[in-house]
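Review this chain:
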Amino acid sequence: MSTGSPRAARISAVFRETERVTPLELFFDLVFVLAITQCTALMADDPTWAGLARGLLVLGVLWWSWVGYAWLTSVLDPEEGGVRLVMFVAMAALLVVALCVPGAFGDDALLFACAYGVVRFSQIGLFLIASRENPGLRQSVLGLAGGTAVGVGLLLAASGLDGWAQGLVWALALALDMAEPYFFGSEGWSLEHPGHFAERHGLIIIIALGESIVAIGIGAGVAVDVGVVAAATLGIAAAAALWWLYFDVVALVAERSLARLPAGRERNERGRDSYSYLHFPMVAGIVLLALGLKKTVGDVEYDLGTVVASAMLGGAAIYLLAHVAFRLRNIGSLNRQRLVCAITLVALIPLLARIPALLALAILTAALCGLVALEAVRFAEARARVRQRLAEESAPH
């Protein structure tokens, strides 16, 4: 709903009135694709434990900036008023952030922090406009502004450090930023369009899966032989299994669960926990898997080594464990199949780190596809009931 004159609407913010994800939101997410790809490249260039840690820290910072815009566009229409122009500014700044990822802990650290500050404070500015007549939202936004200022300030300070000290300051900045919703509460936030919010996060899972496919292409280079074809096929199968595990039932049930809650604190906290927090390990798991896929396609005959094998199998395990927590938070039940599969993958790391990469990928893909098949058979009737019920509920709309 918009207020005021047409001229006022052009220079101010307009509240969202639809569940539909807009083209501008999809356009914004395309910049995030590059950012995710850069995180994988950062880890691939330094496949050590320290390299993985740096890659995940950068991914966490980028994720939290994206989450801010997911909440923002659940309140404001990004294609109306002045929001459109500010979104373009944020996209430009996010592109600079993505370009700086390879040097985020080196020569480009200061530029990364400055551009990241533009991304975050552009969101804060729009939220301040949106909260003019909403004291509860204004209080939450001011708390977010304080937390954002601390996080950006720490990244600026980290740009002057190196080694473990720099990494620790980055970790502190990310931890404080992500903990901010607990410090300042969730009562003031507005989640009036839960379907839109859930869809945005589903689309970001697709983007992350797409990045894993890009990693296969980058890893293959120009030489396409039998080994590369086999690795690419297995990689697509693994990505398809991850897609199936999320979108077949889980995403649908979680969206319905969120939509059924009354607007207010309970819905806000469910959205925060299920999507802002628990979708991060899902995306991180996919990115780690993409690193393993890239290294496997690049050299199918040699072993992955402990670090890369841990990334590939551990990434898949993290993804599954996030699903377990996602189901617990939304439905209150434990998915034992995915829990056992995750534990098994972690247990296999020492063995699969020492065998040819192609064979390790084949075992991982078999485990994921086997999990999909097991659940499809074991829960066939329950799955059919859930999907039919969801179809009936959405039919009138």
Summary: The domain at 194-397 is CATH 1.20.1410 (I/LWEQ domain). The CA atoms of residues 179 and 375 lie 35 Å apart.
